[in-house]
Specification:
By secondary structure, the chain is α+β, with helices and mostly antiparallel strands. It contains four helices and 13 strands.
Length: 221
């Protein structure tokens, strides 16, 4: 590599570094939604409908980026919130971006913090195809309540067993001459899972992680 290539490489370096390999993940956008209730801000949660992926789980509104509809993840978050909760986009105000979450299961979550300007939950016309119910919890509850914390192990599997009971090698570690520890499943990481139990529901996973992030920012004020 000569000096001219080095100069060209320098020009290719991003001004703001992104996430290496992000295009290999399922990328979604989520709006961590707040609503003013009796002069106090509440988080707005929704419970997923029974007939969709991750049915019955508690989440914030959001979904996948649609290039024919969205020009940014911010637009995705607003559009999905409007569709799922049945509220006009003009009633949704994004106040900033939160840190992107990279989940071990191959998902990146582009998170935003926003406010819905409505009089109450009765103003919503939720999409029952996607949402079973919507409820709110005061932000102060989470400020005063530490989440339960657990750890799970993630393993990398270089092979799997097919329906015929045959081993299918998908990463030929032995053939590549790698150490024996990579010939069979190996532990890659321990991942923290946070859990809040509130309003008769369990808020966990990415949703709880987002709540915890916002609360940490509030506590640092």
């Amino acid at each position: 590599m000569d000096e001219s290539v080095m100069e060209g490489l320098k020009e290719k370096l991003p001004v703001i570094p992104g996430i290496n390999g992000k295009d290999e993940y399922f990328s979604s956008a989520v709006l961590v939604l707040l609503m003013l209730v009796n002069k106090e801000y509440h988080f707005v949660f929704q419970k997923r409908a029974a007939n969709i992926r991750q049915a019955g789980e508690i989440c914030f509104p959001g979904g996948s980026f649609e290039p024919e509809l969205d020009t940014s993840f911010r637009e995705t978050a607003i559009r999905e919130t409007s569709e799922e909760l049945g509220v006009n986009c003009e009633k949704i105000r994004v106040i900033g971006k939160l840190d992107t979450i990279i989940a071990p299961l191959g998902i990146t979550v582009n998170a935003f913090l926003g406010i819905v300007d409505i009089g109450g939950l009765d103003d919503l016309r939720i999409s029952t195809a996607e949402v079973e119910k919507v409820f709110t919890v005061p932000v102060s509850y989470f400020v005063d309540t530490e989440p339960e914390a657990y750890k799970v192990n993630f393993f990398a599997h270089p092979s799997y067993t097919n329906h015929a009971g045959e081993e299918v090698i998908i990463f030929p570690a032995q053939e590549l001459g790698l150490p024996k520890r990579y010939w069979r499943p190996w532990e890659t990481t321990k991942y923290n899972i946070f859990v809040y139990r509130v309003a008769g529901e369990t808020i966990w996973g990415i949703t709880a992680r987002l709540v915890r992030d916002v609360v940490a920012k509030i506590k640092s004020l």
